C-alpha cells in the first residue's frame, strides 16, 4: 500500500469534496449512456464530478491528467416471485385508480433494487482503494478521500434532480379566488338532486357556479359527448371564476374548476361556499365520475391505443445497430419518437455518428452542456434501451414547454430541435437542410389581375383534413343522429365510427386557391379580394407531412379529429412545383400598405403615408410623437368573450392591423404558447416600452449570451431591440434574419456609411436543396389520446424493407403498421 499512499498524497490537492450547487454526474456517462448498472460500472472524476463509462474514462484521464476516480457499480438484486404471478412470470397488473405515476394506485412503473459497490480507482494503472484500505492510511489522506467519497455518494446526481420519480395528476393547488370569493345573495337554493342545465335541460356533466349558483352544463368533449359549454359561456359573460361539479360532492370534497386559472383547483372554503346555496356537503353522495376518473378512462381507451401499439399481436423483439430503444423519462415519448426517426436520416448520421470520436475529442471540459456531444449520445446504448436525462435537460433549457415532464406535441419538438441544430451548425454540415424547402405564395388581385410573388422557408407541410369529404359520410351522419337521440333521452352515447378521409382530398385542400377578402392591393390603393396560390419553390431531400388532427370546434373547444387517412407509400408532388412569374403577367407595384406591425419585425416609416422625403420615420416605435393607433373594440370584445386574456386580444387586433376577427383569431391560436402572451400591449409612442429608444440600455447578460453563439455585438443589439429585450424571441429573430444581418454592416447607430444601398450585393437566399418531387414513405409518428398535452407517442420506421415499431425502449418487428392513423409522416426523395 506504500505506492498507493504516495499516489494519493501526490493527487490529494485534486480531490475535491462536493459543495452545495456542484453538479455531480454519478448516474450517467458524459459520453455514452453507461451507468453504474452497465458492464464496467461508472467512474466519477473526484475533481470535476463528471461521470464516465469504462470505455471513456481512459480518454478523460489522458486529456485532463486526472488520476482519482470513484468507481460505482450496481448489481440488480434477485427479487422473490410474487405468489400472484401469472404463468408468464409477470405479476398481474392492477387497474389504476389514481391519475398518477409511481405512487400507490397510479400507473405502474418498474422499480428495481440494486446492491452497490464503491471504491477509488487510481489511473493509469487502475489501482483500487476501498474504504477498508483507507483505514490504514495517514490521517490527511484518509480524511480528504473519505469526505470526498461520502460527499459524492450523498449528493443528488444531476439526472436525479432532473428526473421526476413520481407524478400525481390529482395534486391540485388552492385557487387564488377561494379565500375571497364573492357570493351573491340572490336567494338561490340548490336541491340535493334532480339538477338540469338552466339553458338546455341537460341532466349530466353539470357545474354550479359558486358565485351566483347557476347550474349549467360543462364543456363539449372532442367526441361530441359531454355538455354544450353553457357553464363556460356563463363565465365568459360574468367573469365568475369557480364552479363545482354536481354529482362529485361528498364529505371528502368535490371537483372544483377555476375558469380564470384554467385548471382543477382546491377550495378550502368549499363547505362554506356550498352552504351559501343550501348544499350540506356532509350529506351528499357521489353520483357522477370525477374528472380524474374520466381522464384515467381516456388514458386506458381501447381502439386507437391498441391499434397503434399493435397490442393484439405477438411482436418479435429486435436489437442491434439502429434498433436501440429509449427509456421514457416521464412523458418523453414525443422526444424518443422524433429522435429515433431523425437518426435514420443520412445527414444526421454523418454529422453526429460518422465522426463521433472527433466530436468527443473536441468536446469542452464539461461535455454535458455541449449540444453536439449530447446529440451524438443517441448512437450509443444497448438492447435494454438508452435514457439521457442530460440531453433532455439540454434541449429544454430556457423553454418551459420542453423542460418539464408534461406531454408535448411531437411536431413542436421537431421544429424546436431543428431550430437548435440551425443555431449550432452555422458552419460546416447542417443536417436540418435535409428538411428545408422554399414555399412560393402567389397573390393575384382580382380587381387589377396583377400578381405578387413571395417566398418563405419551411420545414414541414401541414396537411388539412376536410371532414366534409369523408367517404363514409352516411355512416357518420347516422352516428351523429343516434348521438343526438341518446343525448335528448339521457342515454349514454354509443361509440362513434372513425371518419375515412382520402389522402388525395387532403392534398387537394392544401393546393387549392385561397380567397383573401381583406387584401390591400397596391394597384388599386385599397382593400379588395385576392386569390392566393401556394406551391413548392423547391423540394427537400426529406419531406415531413403533419396531419392537422388537432383543431378547434365552432365553439373554440380543442378537439382531436378521429380520422383514418389512406397515406400512400409513394408520393409524387411534381404537379405542385411553383412556376414563377408567367409571360405577360403584370406584378403589383412595390408600394407599401398601411403599417402593420408584428412583434418580431422592426417597423420602418412608410414614405408617403405618414412621412415625407426628409422624414421617413413618423410611423415608428422609436418616435415618441406618434399618436396611438386605434384598436377595433368590437373585435377585442369578441375575443374576450371567448375567454382569452384582454391584453392578448388587444395584441391580436393590433398585430393584424384591425383586419377582422378571423385574422385576429389566427394570431391568438399561433401565439398562445408565447411567454408574453398575456403581457400588456405597449403601443408605439409609449415611453414604457422596453427597448424602444436607441439610447436605452440593453441587458448585458442577454448580449453576452447571443455573442457567445457566434454573432457580433451589433447583431445581438439589433435583435434585442427588435424584440423588446426578450432573449428567447431575440434568438429566434436573429436566426430568421440571418441573410439581412450577414449582408449589412450593422452598428448601434444604424446603417454604416461605408457604401450606398445601390452598391450593395443583394443578400443571398437561404440554402436549400432541390430535386424531383417524388418520395417514398420511410417513417411515421403516431399519437394516441385526446390532446397533444396527454396520451402517448410511438414511431414506425422502415428498415431493410421491414417496418419496425419503436415504443419507447421496446423495439419490435411490426406486423400491421397503422399507416392510416399517423400524425407525422416522413418521406425521402426517390432517386431516379
Automatic annotation (TrEMBL):
<protein>
    <recommendedName>
        <fullName>Ubiquitin carboxyl-terminal hydrolase</fullName>
        <ecNumber>3.4.19.12</ecNumber>
    </recommendedName>
</protein>
<dbReference type="InterPro" id="IPR050164">
    <property type="entry name" value="Peptidase_C19"/>
</dbReference>
<feature type="domain" description="UBP-type">
    <location>
        <begin position="173"/>
        <end position="281"/>
    </location>
</feature>
<feature type="domain" description="UBA">
    <location>
        <begin position="697"/>
        <end position="737"/>
    </location>
</feature>
<feature type="region of interest" description="Disordered">
    <location>
        <begin position="474"/>
        <end position="497"/>
    </location>
</feature>
<feature type="region of interest" description="Disordered">
    <location>
        <begin position="73"/>
        <end position="98"/>
    </location>
</feature>
<keyword id="KW-0479">Metal-binding</keyword>
<dbReference type="GO" id="GO:0004843">
    <property type="term" value="F:cysteine-type deubiquitinase activity"/>
</dbReference>
<feature type="binding site">
    <location>
        <position position="262"/>
    </location>
    <ligand>
        <name>substrate</name>
    </ligand>
</feature>
<dbReference type="GO" id="GO:0005634">
    <property type="term" value="C:nucleus"/>
</dbReference>
<dbReference type="Pfam" id="PF00627">
    <property type="entry name" value="UBA"/>
</dbReference>
<dbReference type="Pfam" id="PF00443">
    <property type="entry name" value="UCH"/>
</dbReference>
<keyword id="KW-0863">Zinc-finger</keyword>
<feature type="compositionally biased region" description="Low complexity">
    <location>
        <begin position="488"/>
        <end position="497"/>
    </location>
</feature>
<feature type="binding site">
    <location>
        <position position="217"/>
    </location>
    <ligand>
        <name>Zn(2+)</name>
    </ligand>
</feature>
<keyword id="KW-0862">Zinc</keyword>
<dbReference type="InterPro" id="IPR041432">
    <property type="entry name" value="UBP13_Znf-UBP_var"/>
</dbReference>
<keyword id="KW-0788">Thiol protease</keyword>
<dbReference type="InterPro" id="IPR016652">
    <property type="entry name" value="Ubiquitinyl_hydrolase"/>
</dbReference>
<feature type="region of interest" description="Disordered">
    <location>
        <begin position="680"/>
        <end position="699"/>
    </location>
</feature>
<dbReference type="InterPro" id="IPR038765">
    <property type="entry name" value="Papain-like_cys_pep_sf"/>
</dbReference>
<feature type="disulfide bond">
    <location>
        <begin position="193"/>
        <end position="790"/>
    </location>
</feature>
<dbReference type="InterPro" id="IPR028889">
    <property type="entry name" value="USP"/>
</dbReference>
<dbReference type="GO" id="GO:0005829">
    <property type="term" value="C:cytosol"/>
</dbReference>
<keyword id="KW-0677">Repeat</keyword>
<feature type="binding site">
    <location>
        <position position="200"/>
    </location>
    <ligand>
        <name>Zn(2+)</name>
    </ligand>
</feature>
<dbReference type="GO" id="GO:0016579">
    <property type="term" value="P:protein deubiquitination"/>
</dbReference>
<dbReference type="InterPro" id="IPR001394">
    <property type="entry name" value="Peptidase_C19_UCH"/>
</dbReference>
<comment type="similarity">
    <text>Belongs to the peptidase C19 family.</text>
</comment>
<feature type="active site" description="Proton acceptor">
    <location>
        <position position="792"/>
    </location>
</feature>
<dbReference type="InterPro" id="IPR018200">
    <property type="entry name" value="USP_CS"/>
</dbReference>
<dbReference type="GO" id="GO:0006508">
    <property type="term" value="P:proteolysis"/>
</dbReference>
<dbReference type="InterPro" id="IPR009060">
    <property type="entry name" value="UBA-like_sf"/>
</dbReference>
<feature type="domain" description="UBA">
    <location>
        <begin position="630"/>
        <end position="671"/>
    </location>
</feature>
<feature type="binding site">
    <location>
        <position position="257"/>
    </location>
    <ligand>
        <name>substrate</name>
    </ligand>
</feature>
<dbReference type="InterPro" id="IPR013083">
    <property type="entry name" value="Znf_RING/FYVE/PHD"/>
</dbReference>
<dbReference type="GO" id="GO:0008270">
    <property type="term" value="F:zinc ion binding"/>
</dbReference>
<feature type="compositionally biased region" description="Polar residues">
    <location>
        <begin position="685"/>
        <end position="696"/>
    </location>
</feature>
<feature type="binding site">
    <location>
        <begin position="219"/>
        <end position="222"/>
    </location>
    <ligand>
        <name>substrate</name>
    </ligand>
</feature>
<keyword id="KW-0378">Hydrolase</keyword>
<feature type="binding site">
    <location>
        <position position="207"/>
    </location>
    <ligand>
        <name>substrate</name>
    </ligand>
</feature>
<feature type="active site" description="Nucleophile">
    <location>
        <position position="333"/>
    </location>
</feature>
Amino acid at each position: 500500500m506504500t505506492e498507493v499512499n504516495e499516489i494519493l498524497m501526490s493527487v490529494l490537492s485534486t480531490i475535491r469534496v462536493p459543495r452545495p450547487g456542484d453538479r455531480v454526474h454519478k448516474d450517467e456517462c458524459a459520453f455514452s449512456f453507461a451507468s453504474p448498472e452497465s458492464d464496467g460500472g461508472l467512474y466519477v472524476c473526484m475533481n470535476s464530478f463528471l461521470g464516465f463509462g469504462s470505455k471513456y474514462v481512459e480518454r478523460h484521464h489522458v486529456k485532463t491528467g486526472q488520476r482519482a476516480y470513484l468507481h460505482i457499480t450496481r448489481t440488480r438484486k434477485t427479487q422473490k416471485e410474487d405468489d400472484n404471478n401469472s404463468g408468464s412470470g409477470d405479476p398481474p397488473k392492477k387497474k389504476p385508480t389514481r391519475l398518477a405515476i409511481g405512487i400507490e394506485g397510479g400507473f405502474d412503473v418498474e422499480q428495481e433494487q440494486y446492491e452497490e459497490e464503491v471504491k477509488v480507482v487510481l489511473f493509469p494503472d487502475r489501482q483500487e482503494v476501498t474504504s477498508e484500505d483507507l483505514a490504514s492510511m495517514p490521517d490527511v489522506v484518509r480524511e480528504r478521500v473519505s469526505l470526498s467519497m461520502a460527499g459524492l455518494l450523498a449528493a443528488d446526481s444531476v439526472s436525479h434532480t432532473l428526473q421526476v420519480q413520481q407524478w400525481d395528476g390529482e395534486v391540485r393547488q388552492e385557487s387564488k379566488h377561494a379565500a375571497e370569493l364573492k357570493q351573491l345573495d340572490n336567494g338561490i337554493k340548490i336541491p340535493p338532486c334532480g339538477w338540469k342545465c338552466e339553458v338546455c335541460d341537460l341532466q349530466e356533466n353539470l357545474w354550479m357556479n359558486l358565485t351566483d349558483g347557476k347550474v349549467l352544463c360543462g364543456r363539449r368533449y372532442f367526441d361530441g359527448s359531454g355538455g354544450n359549454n353553457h357553464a363556460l359561456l356563463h363565465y365568459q359573460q360574468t367573469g365568475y371564476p369557480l364552479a363545482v361539479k354536481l354529482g362529485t360532492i361528498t364529505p371528502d370534497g368535490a371537483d372544483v374548476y377555476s375558469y380564470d386559472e384554467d385548471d382543477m383547483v382546491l377550495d378550502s372554503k368549499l363547505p362554506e361556499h356550498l352552504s351559501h346555496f343550501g348544499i350540506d356537503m356532509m350529506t351528499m353522495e357521489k353520483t357522477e365520475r370525477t374528472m380524474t376518473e374520466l381522464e384515467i378512462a381516456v388514458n386506458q381507451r381501447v381502439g386507437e391505443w391498441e391499434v397503434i401499439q399493435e397490442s393484439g399481436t405477438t411482436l418479435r423483439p429486435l436489437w442491434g445497430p439502429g434498433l436501440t430503444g429509449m427509456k421514457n423519462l416521464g412523458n418523453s415519448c414525443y422526444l424518443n419518437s422524433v429522435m429515433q426517426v431523425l437518426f435514420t436520416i443520412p445527414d444526421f448520421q454523418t454529422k453526429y455518428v460518422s465522426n463521433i470520436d472527433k466530436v468527443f475529442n473536441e468536446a469542452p471540459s464539461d461535455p454535458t452542456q455541449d449540444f453536439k456531444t449530447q446529440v451524438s449520445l443517441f448512437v450509443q446504448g444497448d438492447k435494454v434501451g438508452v435514457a439521457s436525462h442530460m440531453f433532455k435537460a439540454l434541449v429544454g433549457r430556457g423553454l418551459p414547454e420542453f423542460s418539464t415532464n408534461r406531454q408535448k406535441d411531437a411536431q413542436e419538438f421537431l421544429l424546436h430541435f431543428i431550430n437548435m441544430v440551425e443555431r449550432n451548425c452555422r458552419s460546416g454540415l447542417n443536417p436540418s437542410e435535409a428538411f428545408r424547402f422554399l414555399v412560393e405564395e402567389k397573390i393575384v388581385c382580382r380587381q387589377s389581375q396583377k400578381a405578387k410573388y413571395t417566398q418563405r422557408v419551411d420545414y414541414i407541410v401541414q396537411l388539412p383534413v376536410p371532414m366534409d369529404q369523408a367517404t363514409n359520410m352516411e355512416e357518420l351522419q347516422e352516428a351523429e343522429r343516434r348521438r343526438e337521440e341518446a343525448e335528448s333521452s339521457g342515454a349514454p352515447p354509443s361509440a362513434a365510427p372513425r371518419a375515412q378521409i382520402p389522402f388525395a382530398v387532403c392534398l387537394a385542400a392544401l393546393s387549392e386557391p385561397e380567397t383573401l377578402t381583406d387584401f390591400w392591393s397596391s394597384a388599386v390603393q385599397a382593400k379588395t379580394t385576392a386569390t392566393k396560390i401556394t406551391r413548392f419553390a423547391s423540394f427537400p431531400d426529406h419531406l415531413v407531412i403533419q396531419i392537422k388532427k388537432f383543431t378547434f370546434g365552432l365553439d373554440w373547444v380543442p378537439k382531436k379529429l378521429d380520422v383514418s387517412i389512406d397515406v400512400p407509400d409513394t408520393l409524387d408532388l411534381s404537379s405542385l412545383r411553383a412556376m414563377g412569374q408567367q409571360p405577360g403577367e403584370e406584378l403589383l407595384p412595390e408600394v407599401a400598405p398601411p403599417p402593420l406591425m408584428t412583434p418580431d419585425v422592426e417597423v420602418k416609416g412608410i414614405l408617403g403615408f405618414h412621412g415625407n422625403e426628409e422624414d421617413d420615420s413618423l410611423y415608428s416605435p422609436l418616435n415618441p410623437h406618434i399618436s396611438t393607433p386605434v384598436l377595433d373594440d368590437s373585435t377585442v370584445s369578441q375575443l374576450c368573450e371567448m375567454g382569452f386574456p384582454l391584453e392578448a386580444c388587444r395584441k391580436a387586433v393590433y398585430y393584424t392591423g384591425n383586419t377582422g376577427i378571423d385574422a385576429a383569431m389566427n394570431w391568438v391560436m399561433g401565439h398562445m404558447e408565447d411567454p408574453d402572451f398575456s403581457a400588456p400591449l405597449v403601443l408605439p409612442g409609449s415611453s414604457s416600452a422596453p427597448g424602444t429608444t436607441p439610447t436605452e440600455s440593453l441587458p448585458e447578460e442577454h448580449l453576452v449570451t447571443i455573442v457567445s453563439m457566434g454573432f457580433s455585438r451589433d447583431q445581438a443589439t439589433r435583435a434585442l431591440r427588435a424584440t423588446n429585450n426578450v432573449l428567447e424571441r431575440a434568438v429566434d429573430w436573429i436566426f430568421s434574419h440571418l441573410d439581412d444581418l450577414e449582408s449589412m454592416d450593422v452598428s448601434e447607430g444604424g446603417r454604416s456609411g461605408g457604401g450606398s444601398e445601390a452598391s450593395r450585393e443583394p443578400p443571398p437566399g437561404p440554402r436549400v436543396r432541390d430535386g424531383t418531387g417524388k418520395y417514398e414513405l420511410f417513417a411515421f409518428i403516431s399519437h394516441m389520446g385526446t390532446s397533444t398535452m396527454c396520451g402517448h407517442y410511438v414511431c414506425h420506421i422502415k428498415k431493410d424493407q421491414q417496418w419496425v415499431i419503436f415504443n419507447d425502449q421496446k423495439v419490435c418487428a411490426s406486423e400491421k403498421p397503422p399507416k392510416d392513423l399517423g400524425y407525422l409522416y416522413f418521406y425521402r426523395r426517390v432517386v431516379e
